[in-house]
Write a structure and sequence with these properties.
145 residues; 5 helices
Amino acid sequence: MDGRAVLVVALFGVLAVVAGGFVTQLVFRFVDGRRDHEQLPAAPESTVETPEPVSGKAAGGVEQAGSILRGGAWIGALERLAIFAGLVANWPEAIAIVLAVKGLGRYPELRSGEKSAVAERFIIGTFVSVLWACGCAGLAVWLRG
């Protein structure tokens, strides 16, 4: 590999890992914002005041579920790194291995059934993270030539 190819792979690798966290957080905010909008009751015609959701988030939101799925940002970064490296190395089986390890590791939290938002956060975060890493890897391979 020449110097240009190494630089392209390195830059897209950093983009996959670092920017993927920001993209995932934006999606979570969007999902929570949509849920807030859907769950807020319509203003009644009487003068009864409706209390505001705590800190602008609906109770049981995807963001609140993050407290149950501790370490999600670090796990997501490692997930994106492993998937990116696997795809750039022309080993797409890495995706299956990463998702299997992640699913088995999170199984107790997902199985507890305390809140459906926990499973929702896991699925949304995983999809966004994997798609971002795959996109970055695809661009890196394409530009690498």
